[in-house]
Amino acid sequence: MTGTVPPLAIAPSRPSAGSAMANGSVVAASSAREVARAWECFAAGEDIEAGVRPEILASWYRCRDQYEVDRKLDVAPPARADVQRVDTGVIFTALGGLGALTGRQVERDDAVVTVTDGDGRVLGAWGDPTAQRRAELHNLAPWSSWSEQCTGTNGMGTSFEVSGPVTVTGPEHWCEAFHQWSCAGISIRDVVTGSPVASINISRWNASLSTSVPSWLTKSVACIEQEIYRRAVHEADKVVSEFRKKCSRVSGPFMAMDRGGKVIAANDAALRHLGLPDEPPIVAAAIEPAERWAPDITGLPDVVRWAMDQAQGSEEWTGYACLPVSPGEDATPLTMRPVVDSNHVVGMLCILGVQEGEPYVGTSQAPASPLPQRVIGMRNDRLVLLAPSEIRYAEADRNIVWLVTERGRIQAATRGLDNVERILTSYGFRRVHRRFLVNLRRVAELERGIKGELFLIMDPRSHEVVPVSRRHAPELRRMLGV
Question: Region Disordered: start and end of each range (predicted)?
Answer without folding.
Answer: 1-21
